[in-house]
Amino acid sequence: MFESIDTSLIDWSRAQFALTAMYHWLFVPLTLGLALIMAIMETLYYRTKNEFWKKTAKFWMKLFGINFAIGVATGIILEFEFGTNWSNYSWLVGDIFGAPLAIEGILAFFMEATFIAVMFFGWDKVSRGYHLASTWLTGIGATLSAWWILVANAWMQNPVGMVFNPDSVRNEMMDFFAIAFSPVALSKFLHSVLSGWILGAVFVVGISAWFLLKKRHKEFAIASIKIGAIVGLVASVLVAWSGDSSAYQVAQTQPMKLAAMEGYYDGQQGAPLVAIGVLNSKKQTYNDEIYPFIIDIKMPKLLSFLATRNLNGYVPGIKNIIDGGYKQSDGTIAISAKEKIARGQTAISALGAYRAAMKAGNKEEALFCRQVLKDNIQYFGYGYIKDVNQLIPNVMLTFYSFRIMVILGGYFILFFALVLFLAYRKNLPEMKWMHRLAIFTIPLGYIAGQAGWIVAEVGRQPWTIQDMLPTCASISKLDVSSVQTTFFIFLFLFTVMLIAEVRILLKEIKKGPEA
Q1: Distance from CA of residue 421 to its chain's centroid?
Q2: Fewer Cβ atoms within 10 A, N terminus or C terminus of the chain?
Q3: 303: which residues sit within 8 A by CB, 6+ positions away?
Q4: Cβ atoms within 10 Å of 281's Cβ, excluding its own
Q5: Where in 242-387 does DSSP place strands (E)?
Q6: Rounded to two decimals, what is the model's pTM?
Q7: Distance of alpha carbon 107 from alpha carbon 507, whole angstroms
Q8: Is Metal-binding one of the keywords (predicted)?
Q9: How many CB atoms lie within 10 A of CB 200?
């Protein structure tokens, strides 16, 4: 079945999911960031009883609500696509992948939906304490929602806590807690939520700077800038720490992605980290002996330290991962990609033979085939790979996206530190150049988040589930024209929704906190 799938169908299916996910991630991080900032502002209102903080919190709540509504719409479409475009994937791992999504819907989303109503319509109808609790619980619900979605994604990056059942031809969950609290899930959750806090902070600082530029609502703008910048600075520092943790997990579970992030082909001990690099577009394959860089400035041993916590640790490159033969961290010798493909094909054949033997009632043959399958199951997905070059992700896209994310991460630390310094020590309301810089920084928060997801998702290709299920074997067998049509329909709808959100946001921002 999988062999007959048109490659253009794979590309269009990937494009449609990427389109939906990228639009969805325009809204989610701002929801997470604004939820924290407006909750802090309402806490100040609760403690001081100063109506100024109530008015300030209500302004940012209004923008939160507009963004939240559009984000929900794109998220629902994303979940439907698993059933329509990725039915093979859903069949194979639906029992596992569906659990965190179900919990997200039943608990986290229900929590958000319940308390968001009190948050918006409960002013002057419930006590200040009850309303404050509702605001915090709305934010906590949004964060828990992100947690379960990221658990599902982390499991695809590092599948744990399951076993393959040859009778049902499905992977079944064996250890829920191993899935829910894997180190990859924890790192991904922290990194993603903190990046949302940064975007919320960038948004609040940028919009507040616009009020200063227009010489409106000075007190409101300065107060919002101070809270936004404190949240942003703390989140920026923490995101650097969580990024280091994420990179370490990638090194342990997805060494090919790490190698693509670094444009790193030949492994070595004491591997350097590329500080500045321009990739050589003439390099076409992993073994063509062309140097991968036109320009590169490297920091000695730093990649080894980040990947192994040892300055002299060995880090395999793309060529080593394909050819095998190097000593892995667990002491075993890595086998080549060709051997993995051969063992994957053995596993697929053994599965077919097992099912045939069971159908024929030949238990002895079935037991033998089941053992062969068990011995090779970890390479099952490699059986669908036709060429070892398919195992190498888009190095150029992964490499540059990673650097955009890291550079912007460093920029945000400097930006928020400067904003705080000027807000407390200098005459920030008169510094128009700083107002314009803060407004210019808003789109950079979105670019950093999108770049991070490109690293995460493009860097793990060709896998939908790492080492288990390649993308080519995950999709539904549909007409290419159907996927193309829905792609452009979604593109049109999402763009209309985005334009509508921006226009509504701008309209409300222009009204200001007095409205």
Answers
A1: 32
A2: N
A3: 262, 264, 271, 272, 273, 315
A4: 9
A5: 268-269, 273-279, 293-299, 314-315
A6: 0.91
A7: 34
A8: yes
A9: 28
